[in-house]
Amino acid sequence: MISLIILNNFEIPMQLKFREHIEKIVPLTDEEFSFVSQHFSVKKFKKHQFLIQKGDKSVYSFFIVSGLLKLVYTDDSEKEHIVSFAMEDWWESDYYAFFTQTEATMSLECLEDTEVLCFSFEDYKNLCSGLQKMERFFLEKATFGFLSSQRRIISSMAFSSKERYEQFLKQYPSLIQRIPKSLIASYLGVSRETLSRLSS
Amino acid sequence: MISLIILNNFEIPMQLKFREHIEKIVPLTDEEFSFVSQHFSVKKFKKHQFLIQKGDKSVYSFFIVSGLLKLVYTDDSEKEHIVSFAMEDWWESDYYAFFTQTEATMSLECLEDTEVLCFSFEDYKNLCSGLQKMERFFLEKATFGFLSSQRRIISSMAFSSKERYEQFLKQYPSLIQRIPKSLIASYLGVSRETLSRLSS
């Protein structure tokens, strides 16, 4: 296991955090965690750097060890739409591009200095086929990703701006201090002025 | 296997269809398919009947053998919002209620006479723990459910009414003839008049 630590540049606190994250869903032996670790590499990014840019041909998936990111869809008139924010202990990517092995249509940019563990689609497949309990892990992550997206669809259709803002505050209380108001407004689909009114 | 067919009221064409559906993702032996079948029951519903009603305490998940359904969120002012349509070969439920074992906040209603295979969350857990390849099956379904929801979020934020309508036509060409225009308008988040203009 020591050689793997060196190989992948996994520091001990990061290993513990990552293992704890996985073991919330599936318990792992030391050998299994070593096998899992082999599929990931550590990467560090500075604020404003991109992990994914629209048009990228090879898209990775990221587990966020520390930091904060925005996943953005830019429309034909170059307007940015915030699809999601991602912080510590979250997984993020342009998952359509990742799973269908197509070009990125979104970008993933650091709002803070960020440290991630990253893996390719090939790594994902090898990990799932080599250790079946990781399928259970990713099943739980995909299921709750789906539920979260569906709740967002419902809130965008049926909730007022005020209700959407209150839901955001309740779901992500720690993010309010870390994200510029203009980005929260974009995520909620309201103007900067409306958000000021809601948050005053 | 014969006894299971009788037990669960599975007719042969339905069995073949269901098995083919699963085997698009994971191949099954006869014994495995028999094990899978044990977790499902056949149910038939008439147009306008509800498979789930808001407030239901025990929510099932459904594989649609034939027919058409709408998944609806009703807001506090009793306005209906179409979260999704579901037709043959699709899985549908109030999945938040299903996976978190909480009361239904949505309703699922037949737009046509509908035949489904249904299973409980207990069945889902037993099926996954008893036959690990079904975890792979549900992982693929959950992943593509997540991707589809995320595409819908992006289209509601970044696409015009016209683009959303064209995307719907492209994705679900067969549904246009089967669904009342007023429901398509609700799904797309446009007025009935706007939809008439778009589809003329």
What does this structure look like?
- 2 copies of one chain form a homodimer.
- The first copy, chain A, has 200 residues and is an alpha+beta fold.
- Chain A has a single domain (2-158), classed as Sandwich (Jelly Rolls).
- Chain A contains 9 helices and 8 strands.
- In chain A, the strands form 2 sheets. A 4-stranded antiparallel β-sheet of chain A has the order 1-8-3-6. A 4-stranded antiparallel β-sheet of chain A has the order 2-7-4-5.
- The first copy, chain A, is globular, with a radius of gyration of 18 Å.
- In chain A, 32% of the residues are buried.
Main interface by residue count: A-B, 32 and 32 residues
Q: Enumerate how many helices of chain A there are, as a single number.
A: 9
Quaternary structure of the protein: homodimer
- Please identify which CATH superfamily of chain A we are dealing with: Jelly Rolls
Pfam family, one (chains A, B): cNMP_binding
Domain Cyclic nucleotide-binding (chains A, B): 43-129
Protein name (chains A, B): Cyclic nucleotide-binding protein
